[in-house]
Task: structure prediction
Amino acid sequence: MNNCNTIIVDADACPKVIKDILYRAVARLQINMILVANQPLAIPKSKYIKSIVVGAGFDVADRYIIDITTPGDLIITADIPLAAAVVKKEGIALNPRGELYTKNNINEKLSIRNLMDEIRGTGQLTGGPSPLTNKDNQKFANALDSFLAKK
Result:
């Protein structure tokens, strides 16, 4: 049985379609969600949804998310170092492509991310991840539903 009390979203980089999926899940399940961003966000009126604006600066939002994460919280982020810190605090991280980061896989994901970062630094690889597809959106929705069903 999963004890997710709160969904926390790394909202600056989170695609709108993913936020919309989260808003529907929160309304359906009446679970608390906090969106953390460096700028004000337009969010649906709901007693379950709160937006926190943090100061500008490198990793300010990440540090805030880490500080408020408690065991069992679900963090939505594509930031693998943030996901690693969340997992260390016994939270669970889910990226917008529907992949869960857990104790079992976070070290491997972090190693791959660091290697890719090094390769990009040499100029051998440019660009970031491909845009989200409908298939990615569905995979995210399914992973979210599966995780929350264990609640």
Residues 106-121 form the longest helix (16 residues).
